[in-house]
Design a protein that fits this description.
Blueprint: H1 2-27, H2 30-40, H3 76-79, H4 87-95, H5 97-100, H6 114-126
Bound molecules: heme C.
Length: 129
């Protein structure tokens, strides 16, 4: 009995470890995302509530309707887009802003690496909760 129990327990541990590492990689790396944010986005954005640069503050972004920071002058393209920022929408937008919001005014060529976008989104998600 003791032996069988130990064996199923180690199988349980093994499966949990695989699940945990899968979840961790699916969530991306916040630390790497922070560096990508600084390199790719910080020129135009801040993570501070109410502080805009060339672009609007992107603090608490996930779950927010696009184009709704009160003291920022958006393009009508993004205001009329009907987008609510989910991780999926954001991934598409960062990959190719002009495709997701044609006529928008974010002058950014896009981040082609899926892994970099995943890490960046993990970072943005962390500041959305
Ligand atoms: C050269 C400046 C610039 C860079 C670099 C830039 N953005 Fe932007 N971003 C803007 C501008 C300008 C807008 C407003 C777009 C509009 O009004 O159409 C914007 C809008 C956005 C929005 C919509 C916000 C809202 O309130 O709906 C998101 C999300 C966003 N940017 C994310 C990013 C991320 C993430 C990066 C880095 C990968 C990035 N941007 C890089 C200038 C920039």
């Amino acid at each position: 009995m003791g032996h069988r129990y130990r064996r199923s327990f180690s199988i349980f541990l093994f499966v949990s470890m695989i699940l945990a590492s899968t979840l961790a990689s699916a969530a991306g790396s916040i630390k790497k995302g922070s560096a990508i944010y600084k390199r790719e986005c910080a020129e135009c954005h801040t993570m501070k509530d109410g502080t805009n640069k060339k672009g609007p503050s992107i603090f608490r972004l996930i779950g927010r309707k696009a184009g709704t920071i009160a003291n920022y002058d958006y393009s009508s393209a993004i205001k009329d887009s009907g987008i609510v920022w989910s991780t999926e929408k954001l991934d598409l937008y960062i990959k190719n802003p002009n495709k997701v919001v044609p006529g928008g005014k974010m002058k950014y060529e896009g981040l082609s690496s899926a892994k970099s976008r995943e890490d960046l989104i993990a970072y943005l998600l962390f500041f959305s909760e």
